Automatic annotation (TrEMBL):
CDD domains: S24_LexA-like (cd06529). Pfam families: Peptidase_S24 (PF00717). Signal peptide: none annotated. PANTHER family: LEXA REPRESSOR, LEXA REPRESSOR-RELATED. SUPFAM superfamilies: LexA/Signal peptidase. This is S24 family peptidase. Gene3D superfamilies: Umud Fragment, subunit A.
Length: 215
C-alpha cells in the first residue's frame, strides 16, 4: 500500500476531479492542500487537515493508524532478521539448546557480518560487557585471532559458553569479565590428560537487548 496521503489524493481526484477543485470546495488555497499531501498530514496544521478529513468523510483515527503503519514499514526496511539459535551459558557452561526463532538486527551490522547468528546469554560471568539475557551476535570462525576478545566456544563438544579467550601454546584460557569475583579464569591445557577440548564457535561482535529484557 502507498502513503496515506496518496490514497487521499486518489479520493480527491475521484470525487472532485482535481485538487484545485477540492480546495475550492473546502475554502483553502490549492497550494496549501498540495503541500499537505506532499509533505504529510502529520506536519500540517489542524486548520488544514480537518476540512480535508471532514469533506472526504474520513475518520482521523484511520489516518493516524495508516501513518503509524507507514512508519513501521519504513523502519522495518532498516533491519534484517537473523537466526536466534538458543541459549548459551555465560557462567558455568550449559548445554546449548537450539530454538526456532529469528530476531532483527540493523542492516549495517548484518552487512558487516552476513554469516553471523544470535545466541541468548544466560549467566553473569560476562556482565561487565554483556548483560544476562541479552542476545549476542556471533561471527563464525574456527580460531582465535583477537586475544582476549569475547568468543562463543564449545567445551568438550556440546557445552557452550561465552568468555574472553586467550590462545595458549597448547590450549586456551577462558577469562570471565564479571563484577562477581567468584568467576575465575580457567586454563584448558591439552598437555594435561583429561582436559576438555575447546571448540571455537565464533567471535562475539555485537549484542542487543530483547524487548522483554528486565533488570
Amino acid at each position: 500500500m502507498g502513503r496515506v496521503e496518496d490514497e487521499i489524493r486518489d479520493m480527491i481526484n475521484f470525487q472532485f476531479g482535481s485538487v484545485p477543485r477540492f480546495a475550492q470546495e473546502i475554502g483553502l488555497p490549492a497550494q496549501t492542500v498540495y503541500s499537505a499531501l506532499r509533505k504529510g498530514l502529520s506536519g500540517a496544521s489542524v486548520a488544514t487537515v480537518m476540512p480535508i478529513v471532514a469533506k472526504l468523510g474520513l475518520d482521523p483515527v484511520w489516518i493516524v493508524k495508516n501513518q503509524l503503519r507507514e512508519r513501521d514499514e519504513d523502519e522495518s526496511k532498516n533491519f534484517t532478521y537473523v537466526p536466534l539459535y538458543g541459549s548459551i551459558a555465560a557462567g558455568s557452561p550449559i548445554e546449548m539448546i537450539e530454538v526456532d526463532d529469528h530476531h532483527p538486527i540493523p542492516n549495517a551490522v548484518f552487512n558487516a557480518y552476513p554469516r553471523a547468528f544470535l545466541l541468548e546469554v544466560n549467566g553473569e560471568s560476562m556482565n561487565r560487557v554483556i548483560p544476562n539475557g541479552s542476545y549476542v551476535l556471533v561471527d563464525p570462525c574456527v580460531d582465535v585471532d583477537r586475544d582476549m576478545e569475547p568468543y562463543a566456544v564449545c567445551v568438550n563438544g556440546y557445552d557452550a559458553t561465552i568468555k574472553r579467550v586467550r590462545k595458549l601454546e597448547n590450549g586456551f584460557e577462558l577469562v570471565p569479565d564479571s563484577i562477581d569475583p567468584t568467576f575465575r579464569p580457567k586454563i584448558y591445557d591439552y598437555g594435561v590428560e583429561g582436559t576438555d577440548e575447546i571448540t571455537i564457535i565464533g567471535r562475539v561482535v555485537w549484542y542487543c537487548i530483547p524487548f522483554d529484557w528486565s533488570f
